[in-house]
Predict the structure.
Amino acid sequence: PVLAPFGARLLGASLFAGNAFVVGGAEVPRRNVTTPLVSSLASTLGRCARRGWPNVLSSSACVALWTRQASSAPSSSATSWRTSSPSMSRWPSGCSEAGVERNARAHRGGPRQRGDRRTGGGGRGGSTHRSAPSSLAVDWTDVESFPTRRTKPDGAYSDIEAAWEHRKGGGPGEKDELFFGYYLSLATMVADEGAGAVPELVRRMNLVSCDHDPVPEFVPILEHLPTSGITLGDVVADSGYAHRVPEHFALPLRAAGANLVVDLHPNDRGTQGTHQGAIACNGNLYCPKTPAALLDLGPLGRGTSAEETAAHDAKTAELARYKLGRVSADDEDGYHRVACPAVMDKVRCPLHKASMALSFDKPEVLAPPEEAPACCRQQTITVPPSVNAKTARRHD
């Protein structure tokens, strides 16, 4: 049985699957592709308990809330995926309606009122998630399929939706290997910058066959979050996401209101062309006379000493003085304006006479360009979304 909002989706999936399994299968030897998900949930609950956070996702509470909603739904909303015909919602084995209601009331701390946010009440409106953080960490992992045999005697795959793919060993001594299965993408709630710790709960997930790229398959799900009352804030991701073509990750998420906090791929670091004379580097625009040694700065490696870290921080602060600064937010088409660092009183430059009155602790451009580009002639320049489309991020 399924809840009313998912009846049409399940019916469509069953019509598509025909006599085959929708996902994972029901035979005992095949196991279930959701087993790793249940294990991950159990691990998350364990961390909540160790840190003293409320155990809002205990299994009995989940069962109680699910069965209460299922019992209140019309009988026509529960659909058998094999027969595509209505069937009655059934209680889990050994669970009575009175016991479920009693357990649900205990976990909710009393009778639940309309709009109560302790258990996500109040429908799909924004007030449901108003107090929750808006930041997410996204990543994907491999999930093996568990058929008894990879292929049937006729050569067909036992799991027709799974596929072969390559994965890298993540630890010392682990070798690369092939695996047969799926990609599981997760969006996990993390604390907003400067805020306290929060339970690391999974807000969205997506399971796709390995013959699909997991990143563009997951982005539409993240784009849909604001329509569910969940504001998109920081989206934290590794270089596997940042290296995708902008149309598959960066551009749609920025359009949805997200701030990308990503680690750049080595191929995307360093100078990546110019825009109206300004140097595009590591997701920002810099003065055309920025010292090359500063533009070549890379991330610190593991085991860096305190002295090396301090020297790197000093060079990073010096590089920030040459960065063109934003003077407007993105408009509805993704365009914004930036100003020359001399106009923003960060450097001294003869092309902007007023900047030469700044103190001598500011960097000075000793040899400005003979033919000044637009970024030097004008107070500000317009930056379209196509500039630094892949590499623009919230933090340098």
